[in-house]
Specification:
Helix content is about 70%, strand content about 0%. With about 140 residues, the chain is mostly helical. The protein has one domain (about 1-130). Helix 1 (about 1-20) packs antiparallel against helix 2 and helix 1 (about 1-20) runs antiparallel to helix 5 (about 105-125). It is elongated.
């Protein structure tokens, strides 16, 4: 759960930074609204969480799974935005144009990088068998015997 939230935060920050750096909207189709971007991000988070959950179920997950997580998340975001654009506008070509803009504008690369970083963190947390943080008074007393 923590890595899914981390993925979302990294993706939103990266897309915002890209928008500020290029002085352009991420999806620049006039009158489209925010629905395709929201739907795409929800689908990307769901795919990220699902594939990461499958990857870390094993006792010693491999870092190679991060590539699968990142690529599947970026593709899911791209396809989700394209389908949502098709539903909103009713035009197939507009959906393809938006998807092409995400690829050529760098937004898909941002999603890919955010998923890779967050996926790596998820696998690393599982491999180290990290637990939740505990306050000193929650730990077992070493002097008690």
């Amino acid at each position: 759960m923590m890595t899914a939230i981390g993925f979302f935060a990294l993706a939103v920050f990266g897309l915002g930074a890209l928008s500020v750096a290029t002085d352009a909207d991420i999806i620049s189709v006039h009158g489209l609204g925010q629905a395709p971007g929201i739907v795409g991000m929800i689908i990307a988070i769901a795919v990220f969480a699902g594939i990461l959950w499958l990857a870390v179920r094993i006792a010693r997950p491999r870092f190679r799974s991060v590539w699968t997580i990142a690529i599947a998340t970026a593709l899911a975001h791209l396809i989700g935005v394209g389908i949502a654009t098709l539903v909103v506008t009713g035009e197939f070509v507009t959906g393809l144009a938006v998807m092409g803009g995400l690829i050529s504008g760098g937004a898909s690369l941002i999603i890919l990088a955010a998923a890779a970083v967050a996926g790596w963190a998820g696998v690393a947390l599982r491999r180290t068998r990290a637990g939740r943080p505990r306050w000193p008074w929650e730990r077992d007393d070493p002097d008690a015997g």
